[in-house]
Amino acid sequence: MVSFNTTLEGGFILMGFSDWPHLEQVFFVFILMFYFLSIFGNSTIITVSRMDCRLQTPMYFFLNNLSFLDLCYTTSIVPQLLVNISGIDKTMSYAGCMIQFFIVLLLGGTECVLLVVMAFDRYVAVCRPLHYTSIMRPLLCHALAISSWVGGLVNSLIQTSLIMSIPLCGHHLNHFFCEMLVLLKLACEDTGGTEANLFVAGAIILVCPVAIILGTYAHIAHAVLKIKSRVGSRKVLGTCGSHLTVVFLFYGSAMYTYLQPVHMYSGSEGKFAALFYTIITPMLNPLIYTLRNKDVKGALYKVLWRDTNTM
Predict the structure, then answer these.
(1) How far apart are alpha carbons 149 and 111 in whole angstroms?
(2) I want to staple 267 with a disulfide (CB 3.0 to 4.6 A). Which of 7, 24, 174, 307 is the partner?
(3) CA pair distance 188, 166, nearest whole angstrom
(4) Beta 12-14 vs 91-92: how paired, if at all?
(5) C-alpha radius of gyration, the chain, whole number
(6) For every residue of 26-80, which 3-state class applies, written as one string?
(7) What integer is the mean pLDDT of 62-71?
């Protein structure tokens, strides 16, 4: 059995997808493709919303923040994953593992809170349309964005400190990045108390936001039923539908991973669930918001048309 001090010195070997060596090249190509699509899509939303004055609204301010989060989130995992799959280097130091763990939790927790903020923005826009401008002032928008980062930071500090307090025995992590449940499986001692604390922290950052979002959309649905104009109700359903789709994709995969007992965790299933919320969801977010949003499509067309005419 390897001691905690040895783990500190030797670090970890990330097993990645070595259980399927014949598929590693296929994984490499698809993950690289999804990563580039994620970078391109989220960068496009940020660029277009800054260049078009019609998109200088609270909704697109928060969408910018979401795109920036997705850029950082995938970049904190994918480059190291590609190096791992290529076989160049499958090792990671203990310090590097804890830093990655902290950053992933910080960005993931921030996105959990930000999605609640975006739901609140839609609630004010639909249920309090006459007061929307006076309520969603720039000062409040920036305060809500900062509160999202603070919430993610607090969550990350708590969960990282809990993981770092556990003595670990072993070097092999059956994952492609430093995942919480995989680290718990390396514990040298009983982790019942720590698991309970981590479950409570995970429930607060995952279940509570989902409950708030669902409650918010219940009020929005009630307000939509009162809208007599078909065009108006269709526009509301388009913007709210995009947000709800992102919510279900992100929270569904994250809750499946983080709210299950350690003894029930499956390495193979965990890896594919992690691929979904770390790579596929950030890649899909720009498509979801663009395809169902005429303002974004119009702004994108305007920018491309202007660039074409200047050539």
Answers:
(1) 8
(2) 174
(3) 8
(4) antiparallel
(5) 21
(6) HHHHHHHHHHHHHHHHHHHHHHHHHHCHHHCCHHHHHHHHHHHHHHHHHHCCHHH
(7) 93
